[in-house]
Amino acid sequence: MASADIPTPRTPEGKEGLAALLARPERAVIALDFDGTLAPIVPDPEQARAHPGVVPALVRLAPRVAAIAVVTGRPAGVAVRYGGFAGVPGLDHLVVLGHYGAERWDAHTGDVRAPGAHPAVTAVRAELPGFLDRNGAWRGTWIEDKGGRAVAVHTRRTEDPDAAFEALRAPLAELAASHGLMVEPGRYVLELRPPGMDKGVALAAYLGETDAASVLYAGDDLGDLAAFAAVTSLRGHGLPGLLVASVATSESPQELIDRSDLTVPGPEGLVALLDALADALE
Ligand SMILES: O=P(O)(O)OC[C@H]1O[C@H](O[C@H]2O[C@H](CO)[C@@H](O)[C@H](O)[C@H]2O)[C@H](O)[C@@H](O)[C@@H]1O
């Protein structure tokens, strides 16, 4: 395969982040969101799978960089399954931080470290079907069980996903608050989960473990803004970073695009970027 050039970041901070990654790859951390970044968006969340180029690109990069982590709102075990990350030779140090960092899977042990079910999530889950009926949920609205630590309400498969999403936004915020939960909004999804953890907290803690001298973070949705903010803050403290927005459709939040240093066209573009980095480092 012909090697492609690494695209040039738009911002001076991004250029600095990329230069640091290329200068000292052995101290660079690559952190990647799952849905919309590694896996193309599909109507049924249970059918989402990593782009076929992801694992080969990560296998090429892994020996050249300090660490690679997937940082996702999915339960860690689900991302491992849908990503095809388990038992891959060369990916024995991959880490998946699931549930926005509340869970962790380490490839070298194959174990998921996870807190147990959250009582408020269990209570909300039991209430949800009746609650959605009473609050004007559109036909096609779908509840995703997320292992007792979160529950997500999806509107992508309704006739008008935007209107269906907006109709539920305020009622679900009230329901979440009444149980001490928060709402994490995403691409046609409103997720109810315990507060106190986000991708920024998770990423900063992980970088602290790895003695990183630079970081690349790629994401596609509102939940990734916390990780973007963490990288921006770390840059202010001298850690160079590159922020990549994966943008395949008009759904992508403008705020994420505005805060990125580089935009790639969805998972396919992200794979091309990872391959270009691997080419440069080989
Ligand atoms: O943090 P992420 O890895 O990006 O996960 C965020 C949510 O992604 C999933 O929903 C999104 O992808 C689905 C499959 O492509 C799509 O149908 C849905 O509309 C998107 O919002 C997942 O289902 C959620 O649990 C994750 O929290």
Automatic annotation (TrEMBL):
The keyword Zinc-finger does not apply. Pathway: Glycan biosynthesis; trehalose biosynthesis. Keywords: Hydrolase, Magnesium, Metal-binding. Its EC number is 3.1.3.12. Its cofactor is Mg(2+). Removes the phosphate from trehalose 6-phosphate to produce free trehalose. NCBIfam families: T6PP (TIGR00685). Belongs to the trehalose phosphatase family. This is Trehalose 6-phosphate phosphatase. It comes from Streptomyces polygonati. The lineage of its organism: Bacteria, Bacillati, Actinomycetota, Actinomycetes, Kitasatosporales.
